[in-house]
Structure formats: C-alpha cells, structure tokens
Specification:
Number of domains: 2
Distance between the termini: 34 Å
Radius of gyration: 23 Å
Helix content: 55-70%
Number of helices: 14
Structural class: alpha/beta
Shape: elongated
Strand order of the largest sheet: 1-2-4-3
Length: 277
C-alpha cells in the first residue's frame, strides 16, 4: 500500500531516535515525537492517501485474471481495445475499495474478488464515479445460505440495505459469471439492485407481470427458473431486466428496444453498438 511506503521512513526514524535516546543521549527523544505524530496521521488518512495514489497510478489485474476475462467474460471481450485497460483498472480499484468477508471459509479468493468487482463495474463503467460506497461490504459463502431476512431459504444472493451488505454463494456466482447464458447472473442481479438504490432518480421503467414473457424471450430463463435458481419467493423483474441488458444486449435491443434505449442512457453504455476494436 502506498501509505505504508510513505510511513516507512518515519517508522525507521522513530526506532532510530528511540534507540539513540536510550543508548546515547536523551536529547534525541524529542525527535521521536514528530515521527510518531506523522505515523499516526498517515495511519488515520491511509485510505485517502492510497486512493489518491491509485487514481493517479491505477493498478491492473493479474495476468491470470486478465486471461480469464478474455476467455470467459463476454462484456469484456465486446469492449473496444482502448476500453479494456480502463475497465480492468476500474475493476482493480473497485476491488481495493471493497471489504470482502469470508463466511465458513478462510479467505475470499482473488479471482472471486475480481469477478464480484467486475459485476459492479459493468454497471458503473460509463460513469466517472464508478464506486458504490453505500455497499462496500461483501460477504461470501462457499454454499447457499439462510439469512435473517430469509431464514427458511438457502439462497444464492441478496442485499441487506440497512447495513450496506451484499451476500453471495461463491460457486454459483462464479458459475453464472463464466456461463451467464446457462446460469442466471446473480452478481449482476444484486449489483443492479445496489445501483438502483445508489441512483434512485434515474428513469427506470415500470413493469407488470407481462414483462416476464419478453424477458424469457431475451434470455430463455423463465420467471420460475430464476426464482428457483436464486431460491427466494419473489424476484423483482427490474433487476432481472438490467442483468439481461448486460448479458444479452443484442437480443434485448430486438425484443425491448425502448427499454434498451432507456438503459443505454442510464448506464451510459450502448452495448449492442458495434465498434471498431
């Protein structure tokens, strides 16, 4: 972390002057005080210091994750060449800004962090402010899970608005990310809900139950199939439609052209537009 590198010389100075004050001359003790103050300030403002540095020197994803995206991530492969690096950098920065918490597992794997971050950045890629700070906590399980909101349902994903938390079953998240035409994309689904809460004034469409027939025509996923996959009693069609916009942009534009135009404006991305690479 840049803040740790910044603090390093002051930490060296702290121990050096402490040793000199103890072994040589007590007058050196006066230099311990400013070193300790500066170290304390760097510790307090470490997130701001790190973010300032990363915005000017954006990190990139590892070679392995880049290859994975290039092979299995359709949104990424459709991007023009000049947009691929900025997308990866935003994913890497979103990863740094997110607090991942493993449940019933030791750590959240790095590729899972990248996948979760990529799900979010798909929605915000068209915006300068691509973070979703109200939901920076992500809890990851190695299997379906119950929760206080749905104690009787072992489900794959949900958001808990009061605490700004998103929860995922990791194997199902990874499977739907790598094969979103076969398994409904739970990562996009939950971040679609987070996006709507973060940007409530956007002109989101209103849907009735009749929209499910068109959503199925776009994706081949029926309402019942999506409900059974996530395993919750009610699924709002609005985040489903947003997930389909990103996974099936060409078909979405054919079936729901007006909604497609609305989403292209909201997300500031025309995904079905063919661009030179």
């Amino acid at each position: 972390m840049p803040s740790r590198l910044l603090a390093l010389p002051f930490a060296v100075g702290f121990f050096l002057f402490f040793y000199l004050a103890w072994a040589k001359d007590e007058s050196f003790a006066i230099y311990v005080i400013p070193c300790s103050i500066i170290i304390g300030l760097i510790y307090v403002f470490a997130p701001q210091i790190d973010w300032w540095w990363y915005k000017r020197n954006p990190p990139d994803l590892s070679d392995g994750i880049r290859r994975f995206f290039g092979e299995r991530f359709s949104f990424y492969t459709r991007l023009p060449l000049l947009k691929k690096e900025p997308f990866r950098q935003k994913v890497a920065m979103f990863n740094l800004a997110t607090d991942f918490k493993p449940m019933v597992m030791e750590v959240v794997p790095e590729d899972a962090k990248a996948v979760i971050s990529a799900c979010a950045v798909q929605l915000t890629f068209g915006r300068d402010d691509f973070l979703l700070p109200a939901f920076e906590n992500v809890v990851v399980y190695p299997h379906p899970f119950p929760s206080p909101q749905f104690p009787e349902h072992f489900h794959l994903s949900e958001i808990f608005e009061e605490d700004g938390v998103i929860l995922f079953s990791l194997p199902h998240l990874m499977k739907s990310f790598a094969e979103p035409t076969l398994y409904y994309a739970t990562g996009l689904h939950e971040y679609a809900k987070v996006f709507m809460l973060s940007y409530p004034d956007e002109p989101y469409p209103s849907f009735g139950d009749e929209i499910w027939e068109k959503l199925e025509a776009i994706s081949q996923f029926s309402k019942e199939a999506i409900e059974n996959w996530i395993n919750l009693p009610y699924i709002d069609p609005l985040p489903v439609s947003i997930a389909h916009f990103f996974v099936f942009p060409d078909r979405f534009k054919e079936v729901l052209p007006e909604v497609y135009a609305t989403y292209a404006e909201i997300f500031r991305q025309d995904l079905a537009k063919k661009e030179d690479v």
